[in-house]
Amino acid sequence: MDDIQLLASIESYLAGEMSPIEVAVFEALRKKTPEIDQMVVEHKLFQHQMEDYAATYNIKHTLHEVHTRLLENGDVNEGGELTAKAQVVQLWNRYKRVTAIAASVGGVIALVISGLVAYFSPVVNGNQIQQLSKDIEIIKRNQQYQGSLINEVKSKIPNGVTVISGGSGFLIDAKGFIITNAHVLKGTAAIVVDSKGKEYKAIIVHIDTKKDLAILKIDDEDFTPLKSLPYSIGKTNADLGDEIFTLGYPRNDIVYGVGYLASKTGFNGDSLSYQIQISANPGNSGGPVLNNNGEVIGVLSTRQAQADGVAFAVKSKNIFECVAEAKADDPSLENLKISVRSTIKGTSRKQQINKVADCVYNVKAFSKK
């Protein structure tokens, strides 16, 4: 298939013009070939940008036509000032009540829309990148969903505090040191919850906003340190096309996702991150991204707002730098030793998931009211 035929096929696929059989064949090809999948994602984004441009152009064109018509009718002069001020004042007096009501309704609608946008998708970088942390409302809904489960066990979240953000995190040291994203920890302290639903108090050890990484330490007498971690933390760059998987907490239950490494750089060529093709949702921030060898290659952090399945992960080698900075700031962290040996290499994916899940935590950050 040459480039012109491929582009035509992508156009037909995105426009919904393919038959069910053609769609199945094309999606199989897309899944098998990362380059084609990336072309689909980029072409879809290009279409969105063109639609935005067309909408802006149409608005400007309409405004220009209205201005020209007002000039021709003598309603405004070349400077844009009204010439029939008395008529305008008269119309205002007649319709100001209706206008006020319309403005009020419009304001309410605008506030509601803004609230919904903020509620469903916390975004940065000009509405192009979404952070994958949970906001307070999502956390509240999850707690309400759990219902009686919360009432059965007394929570370790202190009284008089507000849970304001959350996400995922995973052990980098068997003694209870956890890595997550900096944007997950919007509060001053946190608790972490394991895959069996058991809560542990944690302290924030170090935050690096530039790398978007943070270190937590489980500080709870109920926590039993592991003998070792099943995975290693990678120091070198992963390979393009590597199959990857992640575990995290977009829900209260741990969720598995699978994909592949799409680019060795992140959004706009960010050298600190990878671009990965994977389904990711609020709550996935801070989750581990592992390859088939049981090696953590990144920390899932954000997704592209207008492209399906395009997510980004902070490269795992940044974890080593983050830990080094933390140790320089606090000598008591000298006993923090990053896991560099994988015991799940060569095992089945199901076995890998079972082992890794015990080391991935639901993170809930809070602050005093």
Description:
This protein has 369 residues and is α+β, with helices and mostly antiparallel strands. It has a domain at 128-369: Thrombin, subunit H (Beta Barrel). It contains eight helices and 16 strands. It has helices spanning 3-14, 20-32, 34-73, 85-120, 136-146, 148-152, 317-329, 349-357; strands at residues 123-124, 129-131, 134-135, 161-173, 177-180, 189-193, 199-208, 213-218, 232-233, 243-248, 255-263, 273-277, 288-291, 295-304, 310-315, 360-368. Strands 10-11-12-15-14-13 form a six-stranded antiparallel β-barrel. The protein has a six-stranded antiparallel β-barrel with strand order 4-5-8-7-6-16. The protein starts with a helix and ends with a strand. The model is unreliable at 108-122 and 143-153 (pLDDT under 50).
The percent range for helix content is 25-40%
Label the overall shape: globular
- Overall pLDDT level: 80
CATH topological fold name of one domain: Thrombin, subunit H
Write the CATH architecture name of one domain: Beta Barrel
Please tell me how large the radius of gyration is: 26 Å
Structural class: alpha+beta
- Give the class-level CATH name of one domain: Mainly Beta
Distance between the termini: 61 Å
Order of helices and strands: HHHHEEEHHEEEEEEEEEEEEHHE
For the secondary structure, the number of strands is: 16
Biggest sheet: strand arrangement: 10-11-12-15-14-13
Q: What ranges have pLDDT less than 50 throughout 5 or more consecutive residues? A: 108-122, 143-153
**So how many helices?**
8
Q: What fraction of residues sit in β-strands?
A: 25-35%
